[in-house]
Amino acid sequence: MESAQAAIKNNGLPSTTKSYGYPRDLADNPDIDIVVCSGRVDKHYETAMHSLKAGKDVYCEWPLAKDLAQAQEMESLSRSKGVRIIVGLQAWQSPFLNKIKEIVEGGKIGKTLSTTFVSNPGFFGLKEPENLAFTQNRKNGGNILTICWLKAMEAVFYSLGELESFSSIIRV
């Protein structure tokens, strides 16, 4: 609650702005129609499930859950409750990528025959920052592959189209 109150103050929000200490408290508020779930992957399930059970739509950042079983359970509950669970990937909002997509789809450069993607995640090294330590535990579902690489690949697929084939080289 302290960090929520600090965020309200730091962002100049009205003093009437509500803050919640637990996902269920947010989900139980009848004035809320949609809940945005943006945080650590291993916390998405708890936050989203409370909201889905309460009949709220949920917008969740990628990845949806820490594993396929949780994602399927969330999807099943959303269907049974008649609400939507939306997975957000930021690339679709990038003016740069939208321009690339427009050029490629418009045929201005002809058919895309190949592309090369090179990535250096930078912040994952011999000693990661403390706030990223959770990514070292596979059970949490959030790591360089499930977060960084897949978001980057989504940007490539979104702007250039789906792959017909691929080859890869990974170096450590």
From TrEMBL:
Q: Which residues form a coiled coil?
A: none
- Which residues are in the Gfo/Idh/MocA-like oxidoreductase N-terminal domain? 3-88
InterPro entries, sorted: Gal80p-like_C, Gfo/Idh/MocA-like_OxRdtase_N, Gfo/Idh/MocA_oxidoreduct, NAD(P)-bd_dom_sf
Domain Gal80p-like C-terminal, residue spans: 95-170
Q: Which GO terms describe its molecular function?
A: nucleotide binding
Short name of one Pfam family: GFO_IDH_MocA
- Write the protein's name: NAD(P)-binding protein
Q: Which organism is it from?
A: Lepidopterella palustris CBS 459.81
